[in-house]
Amino acid sequence: MQFAEFTQVLSQLEQTSSRLEMTQLLSQLFKKTSAQEIDKVVYLLQGSVVPQYEQLEFGLAERLVFKSFVSSFSLNEAQARQRFKQIGDLGATVEEFRRTNHSLFEASSSLDLLTVFGKLKTLAHQSGTGSQETKLGILSDLFQQLDPLSCRYLVRMVVGKLRLGFSDMTVLDALSWYLKQDKSLKSVIETAYNVRPDLGLIAKLIKTEGIEKIKQIEPEVGVPILMAKAERVGNAGEIIKKIGACAIEPKYDGFRLQIHKMSSGQVKIFSRNLENVVQMFPDLVMAVNQEIAAQNCIFEAEAVGYNPKTKKILPFQEVVQRKRKYQIEEKAKEIPLKLFAFDLLYYNSQSYLNRTYLERRQQLNKVVKSRQQVINLASETIAQNTDLINQLFEQAVSDGLEGIMAKKLSGTYRAGARDWNWIKFKHSYSTRLIDTIDCLVMGFDYGKGKRTDFGLGAFLVGVFDPQTDNFVTVAKIGTGLTDQEWRYLKTQSQSLLTPSRPSIYRVAKQNECDVWLKPGLVVEIRADELSLSPAHTAGLALRFPRLERFRQDKAPHQTTTLPEIQKMQQLQHKSSLK
Ligand code: ATP
Question: Which cofactors (predicted)?
């Protein structure tokens, strides 16, 4: 396939906001690609050359790409800058220039997709001294050889602004359409993707081996597995009703880590949004090597900070300081971590995902050797009745924890799913909502009065609607943040500013914002209740919302979803009727 043929499809995708149409365009594209091309096409659709969890970026700032564009075509910089300003998109600027000066270039659209992919891969892998020049050289060659439309998308890819307006879920839908002309295979494909979240690999397997192979997909140590999530209840009785006798564990308040110990001795540590954060935790790498009895394994744990003098667990606000890029060793000494291991997903080259909780836990107990050093086991009590669950819940709350987790004894590990195999029961005496809500910050208004100092007055938040791949709003929040939190919000927003409302945001007129942000910043919000509201596109609004914490560990598509808050609103009605 020619690269130009591929970018034609990108242009069609960009022109539609209908998810069904996007799905069909993608499935037709998959039909046209060869087995050798399909994984590359999928990575390029995500604006990358590798699966997303590898986080390999092109590392080219827009400013640099602009300079290279100006110099490789010997343009007048001031004029080019002015045109770029008018158009507002570097990709479209380069495209326009290429279109209007076609006589200067070699015969265009002559490169095939595999060649361009290879060059982009080389570009992305450059590092060290001189790498910027090499990267810009590759880019400038491509500008010369590609057609104008391809230049548009090439630029957007390398500056990280491809944004075609669909998520991985649409690609999964499209793979089902590719096989069967409908979305009936989506859930089978999604289950595989949750175990191996590498869209390129999944697409290739579908193309080369078909759906049966997909059903047998296994985890691989070193490749993150999408983390299982818990359903919510408002009282202990509901736990017993749902899953009967169960294992109760404290709900530790730190951050969740998925730890991969490889046979080579290498350790990888993934956070909730599948980022490999191993560099941040040299102390945990050492602990895994010393305290885990397995040749290779994948286990999950909550990391909490503790005070070595008082031996007390620290509040979340302190632990979160361990998530940093600099002064790692110093902070590791100041705030040592303890891990509370609660699940085993893979052990000595065998998947444990389909084993029961009891089997996984039994093996985990053997794998965690020391149990007093850095890696501990989450404490566990088998409870048959409501009284014992309530007692354990009260104990957890009086120990300063958020609540408890209940685990179904016969439950498997459901990668990426939120279901009743795990249930969280959190304390919330002051509100009618049984859980906090993770929201995306979508935009903000300029501040008045004191808050002009921060340049922010109120910020609009929303949740993800998986039906449409859009974000819908639930609140505009203007109070309740500390000065430090306003400042943090301001700094984090800087790199996300975008001149117009992203097309995947559904916002009612009265909630339009002065400034829009691209999807990137997730906040955890506590509210008193969810009420019906025509002003918010979720159809529900948060009453008395307040910021609980910033969730750096969550990606935009991992916010609470629209169906989840609809369910929470119903639960809230139920409990108020009692
Ligand atoms: P989500 O439900 O989407 O995971 P969240 O990340 O906001 O939302 P919580 O509502 O805090 O999560 O509840 C689940 C989280 O609780 C887990 O992701 C994990 O980080 C934490 N946790 C603490 N203790 C345990 C435990 N014993 N077993 C499982 N998870 C635990």
Answer: Mg(2+)
Q: Which residues of 371-398 are buried (b: 16+ CB within 10 A; e: fewer)?
A: eeebbbbbebeebeeeebbbebbeebbe
**Stated length of the chain:** 578
Please give the model's pTM, rounded to 2 decimal places: 0.87
Exposed / middle / buried, residue 75 (Cβ in 10 Å: 0-12, 13-18, 19+):
middle
> Where is average pLDDT lowest: 287-291, 292-296, 391-395, 398-402?
398-402
Task: List strand residue ranges (DSSP E) for 384-436, in order.
Answer: 403-408, 418-426
Q: Which of 186, 204, 207, 251 is catalytic?
A: 251
Domains present along the chain, CATH in parentheses: 47-159 (1.10.3260.10), 233-426 (3.30.470.30), 437-577 (2.40.50.140)
171-227: pLDDT as tens digits: 999 999 999 999 999 999 999 999 999 999 999 999 999 999 999 999 999 999 999
Are 454 and 484 contacting, i.e. CB atoms less than 8 angstroms apart?
A: no
Going by the DSSP 8-state scheme, the letter that residue 559 receives in this structure is S
The response to whether 133 counts as a known ligand-binding position is: no
Q: How far is the CA of 183 from the centre of ligand 1 (A)?
A: 31
User: What is residue 434's DSSP assignment?
Assistant: S
Looking at residue 334, its pLDDT comes to 84
Q: Whose CA is nearest to atom 17 of ligand 1?
A: 256
CB-count burial class (<10 Å; 0-12, 13-18, 19+) for 242: middle
Choose the residue to mutate in 231, 252, 380, 427 for probing ligand 1, maximizing ligand atoms within 8 Å of C-beta. 252
- The annotation status of 318 as a binding-site residue, yes or no, is no
- Ligand 1, from 226, 233, 256, 422: best to mutate by most atoms within 8 Å of Cβ? 256
Buried b (16+ CB within 10 A) or exposed e, 201-225: bbbbbbbeeebeebeebebbbbbbb
**338 in active site:** no
- In the structure, which protein residues have their CB atom closer than 6 angstroms to any atom of ligand 1? 229-230, 249, 251-252, 256, 302, 342, 378, 405, 424, 435, 438
